[in-house]
Amino acid sequence: MKDILEELAAAHRAMGKGSVPAGDAYTIEVRRRYEAQIEDVWDAVTSPERLHRWLKPVTGDLRLGGKFQLDGGEHGEILQCEPPRLLKVSWLYGPDADAWPGTSEVEVRLAPGPTGDTEFELIHAAVVEEPLFPTYGPGAGGVGWDLALLALARLLADGETADHEGVQKSPEQREFIRRSAAAWGKAHLAAGGEPEHVAAAVEATTKFYAPDPT
Predict the structure, then answer these.
(1) Helix/strand/coil for 162
(2) Cα 49–Cα 50–Cα 56 angle in degrees, nearest 5
(3) Distance CA 55, CA 151 (A)
(4) How many whole angstroms separate alpha carbon 208 and alpha carbon 10?
(5) How many angstroms separate the CA atoms of 187 and 103, rounded?
(6) Which residue stretches of 123-211 are H helix?
(7) Is the preceding omega at residue 138 within 30 degrees of 0, hence cis?
(8) 3-state DSSP assignment of residue 24
(9) How far apart are CA 148 and CA 11, in angstroms?
(10) Looking at the whole model, is its pTM more than 0.85?
(11) pLDDT in tens, 35-84
(12) How many H-runs (helices) and E-runs (strands) does the chain carry?
């Protein structure tokens, strides 16, 4: 339990506003440091052989301007690629994704740290329609990215492959989800969210990612 809570505390979370081709967007931002060389982190976030070990299996034309698809249905186009510092992609999902191009973008920025480590930043900007944002707040995407970046930390530290199927079954992972949702609630409050709305969004997000065992 201690290690995943330390990983949770290692990240700084923020909610803001930005824009994507479809219009004004909400942003969720995660910043943290990895004890790994920048080239190693870059490889982990761009190599299909390693991506499937912490995120999901990926296929497609993985070069600038190419299109990709994840095993979970997410897909998009590689908009910027500047090794080993910047990767930006469009990020679409859902049955109506192609009808709303440009509604979501994910950007990863890397910078070398002072001790051979890597400063990592992820920004997900999305036009969020009803009922997603009113119901779940920034935790709708934020908890998912927290889980992914926990898996990335474990891959970089000891080569561990994530057990995506066991996320909702492990007591430790369920506690991680609960605390992640609360952490995104704090980011929501800091961005000006109404306390009652934030509390309801945190509860809804927690139940979505870690429903009560049946």
Answers:
(1) coil
(2) 95
(3) 8
(4) 24
(5) 22
(6) 132-136, 139-158, 171-190, 195-209
(7) no
(8) strand
(9) 12
(10) yes
(11) 999 999 999 999 999 999 999 999 999 999 999 999 988 999 999 999 99
(12) 7, 8
Q: Is the pLDDT of residue 22 over 90?
A: no
**SS3 assignment, position 188:** helix
What are the C-alpha distances in Å from 167 to residues 125, 209, 211?
A: 25, 9, 11
Lookup result for tokens 């952490």: 183
What is the distance, to the nearest Å, from the Cα of residue 30 to the centroid of all Cα atoms in its chain? 8
Q: How far is CA 119 from CA 28, 90, 195, 198, in A?
A: 17, 22, 32, 29
DSSP β-bridge partners for residue 26: 17, 126
- In DSSP terms, 92 is beta-bridged to 75
Residue pair 184/133 in contact (Cβ under 8 Å)? The answer is no
For 90, residues 6+ apart whose C-beta sits below 8 A from its C-beta are 76, 77, 79, 101, 102, 104, 105
**Encoded amino acid at 9, one letter:** A
Cα 191 from Cα 186, distance rounded (Å): 9
Asked if 48 and 62 count as a contact pair (C-beta separation under 8 A), the reply is yes
Contact 50, 130 (CB under 8 A): no
Q: Which residue in 94, 104, 87, 88 sits closest to 72, CA to CA?
A: 94
**SS3 label, residue 96:** coil
Q: Phi-psi category of 140—alpha, beta or left, where left has phi over 0 and alpha has psi -120 to 50?
A: alpha
Question: How far apart are alpha carbons 131 and 59 in whole angstroms?
Answer: 30
